[in-house]
Each structure stands twice: as C-alpha cells, then as structure tokens.
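Subject: for your reference before the review

Hello V.,

The reviewers asked for a structural picture of the protein, and I figured it would be easier to keep everything in one thread rather than splitting it across files. Below is the amino acid sequence we used in the manuscript, unchanged from the supplementary table.
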Amino acid sequence: MDIERRIARRHFLTRAAAAGLTPIVPALPALAEEGKPAAASAAPVLAQTLARYAAALRYEDLPEDVVRIARRTILDTVGCAYGGYAAGPSKIAMQLAADVSARESATVLISGIRTTPDLATFANGVMFRYLDFNDAFVSLTHGAGHPSDTIAALLAAAEVKKRSGRDLITATVLAYEVFCKVADVFDYLGNGIDHSTITGIAAVVGAGHLAGLNEEQMLHAIGITVGGNTATRQGRADALSNWKAFAAADACRKAIFAVELAQAGMTGPALVFEGRYGFFKVMGRKAVEPVQLGEPFGIRRAFTKRFPLGQFSQTVAQAAVEVRPFAENPDDIAAVNIAVSRSAIKIMAEGPAKWRPQTHETADHSIPYAAGLVLMYGRIDPDFYEDPYLHDARLLDLVSRVKVVPSDEADRTENEFNLCELEVVRKSGERKTARVEYHRGHFKNPMTDAEMEEKFRQLAQKHLPPARVDALLRVLWGIEREPSLDRLIAATKV
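And here is what came back from the structure prediction:
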C-alpha cells in the first residue's frame, strides 16, 4: 500500500474541509507492486471521477459569475482566431482541412471550410493559439497552460451534434474544470510533460459531454486519449518551432477522434492514470492528491492576456509600459534589469536565443525581447515578431542591454501572481523601477467587458467591416440564447 499517497489524501481532505470545500474524491484502489498484476477490484479512479462529473454537470448548476466568465472566454478565443487567420501555419492547417470532406462535417471558422471534425478542430486550434493571445492558467503545482485551447474541440463537437449555446458554455466550464484541477495535483511541468497533454484530457471530456457519451464511453475516450497522447516539453525548449503553439491544437484533434472511436464502440485502457504503468506512475513517479471538481470552479483562476505574448511576460510588458515615460529615448537607456521567478526565466529568458530570436515563436516567448519592444515602441504589435523587426539592429542593441535575474520573492508568490520588478537605468545614472504583481487581465485585476470588446475589435477589424464585427459581438455576448452554433459560425466568415 502506498502510505505517502494515503497521507497526501488525508491532508488534502483536511485542507478542503477547513476551506469549506466538498471534494469529489472516490476511494483509492490498492496500487499493484512492481511485477505483479493490479488487484481485480481496482477502479479507474480519476477517469471514473471525470466521467461521472461530466455526465452530471448541467447549465443550471453553474453560478452566474462562472457563466459570465465562460461567455467572455469564448468571445476572447474567437477574437484570437482572427489574429491568427492569415498566418502561415493557419494556411497550412486550412489547406489540409480543405482537401478532405466528410458526410458529418464541421466548419473552420472565418474561412467557412467544411471538413472532418478533427481537421476543423486542428485548424481552429492553430488560429486560436498563433498569437499566444488567448487566455492562460497557472496551477497550484507551478504548471501553466491555455485551457481555452480546448474550445477548438468543443466548437466542432457542438456543431456536429447541433448543441446550443448553453451547452457550449457548460462544456467550456467542464473542460476548464478538468484542465485546472488535474493541473493542480500533477506537476507536469516539473516532470517534463507538455501542457498540451492536459489539454487533451480536458478536451476529450468536454467534447465527449457535447457528443452525448455515456459514462462507459467517456471512460474509454479518456483511456484512449491519455494512453496514446502524452507530449514532452521539448517543443518549448531551445529554438522554438511552430509546434510550440500547435501541439495543443493537435491534442484537441486527437481528442475528437477519441470521442468518435469511443462512441463507435472502441475500448481504451481503464486504469490509464493509476495502473501499474499508468500515467501518474510512469510520468510523475510520486503520489498525486485526489482531484476536487466543482466549487470553487477552476475557470475563475484563468486570466486574460492584455499583450500578445507568453503569460510570464504579461507583467514584464506592463512594467515596461509604466517606466517608459522615464526613458522615452531608447538610446538613453544604459541597462534594463528585470527580476522574475525562476519558472519565468526557464521558459522565457533562458539561453541566447531569447535575446536574438529568429522565429515568431521564440520572440513571443522572450522576456528581454518583450521588454525591448515596449521600451522602443510603447506597445506590442504581432507584426513585431516578424521581419524586419527580428533583425532590427537598434532594437536588438536595446534588447542586449536587458538582464534577467531570479527573484526569491517571485518564486514564493508564483502560484498567486507573476511578480516582475523592472528597473531602467539611464546613461546619466538615474534609475526608475516598476513593480507589477497582478497584470491587467489577471483574475484579481480583470479586464472590463469594454476592454475585452476593444481587444476583439482590434483583431477582427482586419478581416471584417465594423458592422459585421458588431453583429458577431452581439451573438457572442448572448451566446447562451443561441439554439445552435449556426449563427455564430456564419457570423465569423469573411
């Protein structure tokens, strides 16, 4: 018997009770000893918990503020699709989708292409993530990711099964719940597992809910997804490629396929998390606390991005905006000193490529480049991640003056906020420091509806006339009143 696991469970329940929470915690099965089969009575603990929760959740169960957050999230994610629509990777995904037709098809947003549900999911997911502008989440185990990526799978499943706007909101909250709560108990970042793995788990549960999977089918869909689709973090290390952003779109594509397989009768491994060679044992190698689903809902801890760059740079960019009036002439800056958490440095300021990015993906995940852009131009535009900016000598000279150091305080507080202290030193020796804890868009410093709408318009107006943008926003703000997604999908088309 795994004593550490039992103790962790007891501590978790004690903390939950003290906080007034009621965790959904099934009985733990006995773990099999190495080389011996698992006990016949062992139950698929986490998979069964997720399947039962998905089967029971209804729109009427959702608090009003959670519905509002889900509505804003869907709006923000569709807006991000316009930001990525014209990008090269999106064109690749749309071309692949256009080459395939299906009797039961789904739509690629904006383009109107009809294709298989999994290819529509992938193309939409690529557009959502291209600018790294969709929302994000930081877990209690220091993991991070983008639960809104799952909306690509949810849209396809909802369209094919002719679900309503209320159904989409419910599935969005469900997918977030799975993403956030699994991420809270499993240190995937520390184990070298990419967050797109958690995306796939959340997407298969949300899409399975919309597809009408029963509990047994959901168990198989989860088993198929987890058993065959685990991604490493190498896609986010060293020089970054397109796959940094689009591994999540692929995870959602595979989730749709897993739902289709399970609905057709395909079976998957039951003990996919807790088995002798299950996900937690192989990937984590230590006890994992039980998952608590429901109140407080995880979607409340997701945050919206004000700037089109990685989440660890949101406070950096805001701090640079605040100090820029002190040094409006970049040539007058002698040094820029930035103190952030070690996690932020590991992901966004480690290695020379972050000071001389050669790709869009490396540039939007670079703390020094983000600071340089704001201090040089006063803003961050997606065009700044392409040529000629990537090779602009004056900009790169400014970036070379940026130094990023670890902050013990930022490490201690990173589960709550992403602390940044940014100091600009002028050549005269004068200094100015800005400290940012909760960036604009953080759930403790949220953007207003008007700010969300302004961000949406900035992205959509490049492809739609103002009247069409207005019409699309009306649909999105009232998505829970839509009997199907037909009007939303049609309203996105250029």
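For the response letter, the relevant points are probably these. DSSP finds 20 helices and eight strands in the chain. Confidence is low (pLDDT under 50) at residues 1-44.

Happy to draft the paragraph if you're swamped.

O.
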